[in-house]
């Protein structure tokens, strides 16, 4: 939710500071950059402090970053976004560590997908509450609401911290000796490399869809901020549903790469259909289009992380997942910037969305290659 509060109200934030709403892509990219720093430098925090404490520290870091956004100078949008990313980078590896410990192997794809549903669920909460709060009280109050919820999570997790963190090593170093060890390990493993590149392209499309849905609907389709927020809600709802469905199908089929390849083919069709974005397009079809984009681009995290855990060498699950997340965040970092520049060059969100067919095609190729290696 914290990450998507500003994209959900980007037109109002842009009006407040006097810049083009498409620049919200750079804000999301700064969050991704902060995540990459944490994932490369602080990969050992789970070993040192335990997964629960690391997760709490990550949430607290996100809350601090959100508070920095409230300072009324535009430079603090950059600083706050970077701090949000630094905190966010601690959350997924630590949570994945807990899931790998406590989930039976035959249910991992489903459970990882259920866990990852939290991301679009937060996106839906942002899409439903942030525009309404902004209209009635201003966008900064939407940020404050998110901070309160984050701090509530930190407090709730304390209840089970002692039991969940019984495997921590108090003597493990906090700073990773080799910051790129996880990424290097992934890159040396052919299947993991292909899976990580596919995740990077999925992330590229997912974050472009989530980041620019509201801006495109307000700018191109002339919607109000609240109605545009419902489109973002559809994106996130579809993403959440897609994660559960893909995880369930992957566990039944027994081949995650093959199932994700089927999905990548549908994603290519969805990105091509984005050329139809036009003020004359009925609202129903706008919902359908963004639902397809949300479902096909947002369903991957749980399945990709579970597959990474399956392929990771013994005892290196956390390292492998951190390395995969570093690579996937390259797509999250570069994608919104490339998208924003395509819009600046073409002045068309329809064309910008349609160009996402390129990373979609790369995703399909990588997954097919990974499936063939499994054979």
Structural account:
This protein is an all-alpha fold and 375 residues long. It has a single domain (2-162, 177-374), classed as Up-down Bundle (Growth Hormone, Chain: A). 80% of the residues lie in helices and 0% in strands. It has 20 helices and no strands. It is globular, with a radius of gyration of 19 Å. The protein starts with a helix and ends with a helix. The model has no long low-confidence stretch (mean pLDDT 88).
Which properties best describe this structure?
375 residues, mainly alpha, Growth Hormone, Chain: A, 20 helices, 0% strand, globular
What topology does this entry show?
Blueprint: H1 2-8, H2 10-17, H3 24-41, H4 45-49, H5 51-68, H6 75-88, H7 91-102, H8 108-116, H9 118-137, H10 139-157, H11 161-164, H12 181-188, H13 190-219, H14 225-253, H15 256-273, H16 283-298, H17 300-311, H18 317-346, H19 349-354, H20 357-374
Helix pairs in contact: 1-9, 3-6, 3-18, 5-6, 5-7, 5-10, 7-18, 8-14, 8-17, 9-10, 9-14, 12-18, 13-14, 13-16, 13-17, 13-18, 13-20, 14-15, 14-16, 14-17, 15-16, 15-20, 17-18
In short:
The protein is mainly α. The chain contains 20 helices and no strands.
Low-confidence stretches: none
> What is the mean pLDDT?
88
Write down the domain tally.
1
Q: Count the DSSP helices.
A: 20
Taken in chain order, the helices and strands follow as: HHHHHHHHHHHHHHHHHHHH
Distance between the termini: 39 Å
C-alpha-based Rg, rounded: 19 Å
Q: What amount of the residues lies in strands? A: under 5%
Superfamily (CATH H level) name: MFS general substrate transporter like domains
Highest-level CATH class:
Mainly Alpha
Query: Biggest sheet, open or closed, and with what strands and sense?
Result: none
* Large-scale geometry: globular
Helix-strand makeup class: mainly alpha
SS elements, strand count: 0
Q: Would you tell me which CATH topology applies? A: Growth Hormone, Chain: A
- CATH architecture identity: Up-down Bundle
> What is the percent of helical residues?
over 70%
């Amino acid at each position: 939710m914290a990450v998507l509060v500003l994209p959900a109200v980007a037109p109002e934030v842009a009006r407040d500071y006097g810049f083009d709403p498409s620049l919200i892509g750079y804000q999301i990219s700064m969050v991704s950059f902060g995540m990459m720093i944490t994932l490369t430098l602080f990969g050992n925090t789970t070993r040192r402090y335990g997964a629960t404490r690391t997760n709490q520290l990550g949430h607290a870091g996100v809350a601090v970053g959100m508070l920095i956004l409230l300072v009324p100078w535009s430079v603090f949008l950059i600083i706050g976004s970077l701090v949000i990313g630094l905190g966010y980078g601690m959350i997924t590896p630590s949570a994945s560590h807990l899931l790998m410990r406590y989930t039976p192997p035959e249910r991992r794809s489903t459970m990882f997908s259920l866990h990852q549903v939290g991301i679009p669920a937060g996106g839906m909460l942002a899409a439903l509450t942030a525009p309404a709060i902004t209209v009635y009280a201003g966008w900064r109050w939407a940020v404050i609401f998110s901070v309160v919820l984050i701090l509530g999570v930190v407090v709730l997790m304390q209840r089970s911290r002692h039991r969940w963190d019984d495997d921590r090593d108090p003597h493990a170093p906090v700073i990773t000796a080799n910051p790129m060890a996880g990424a290097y390990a992934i890159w040396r493993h052919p299947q993991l490399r292909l899976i990580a590149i596919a995740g990077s392209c999925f992330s590229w499309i997912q974050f472009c869809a989530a980041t620019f849905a509201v801006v495109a609907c307000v700018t191109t389709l002339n919607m109000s901020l609240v109605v545009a927020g419902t489109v973002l809600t559809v994106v996130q709802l579809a993403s959440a549903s897609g994660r559960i469905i893909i995880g369930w199908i992957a566990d039944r089929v027994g081949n995650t790469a093959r199932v994700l390849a089927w999905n990548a083919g549908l994603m290519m069709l969805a990105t091509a259909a984005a050329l139809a974005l036009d003020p004359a397009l009925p609202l129903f079809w706008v919902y359908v289009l963004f639902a397809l984009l949300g479902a096909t681009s947002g369903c991957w995290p749980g399945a990709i992380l579970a597959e990474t855990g399956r392929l990771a060498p013994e005892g290196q699950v956390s390292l492998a997942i951190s390395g995969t997340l570093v690579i996937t965040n390259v797509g999250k970092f570069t994608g919104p910037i490339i998208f924003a520049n395509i819009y600046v060059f073409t002045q068309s969100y329809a064309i910008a969305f349609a160009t996402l067919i390129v990373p979609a095609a790369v995703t399909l190729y990588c997954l097919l290659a990974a499936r063939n290696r499994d054979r």
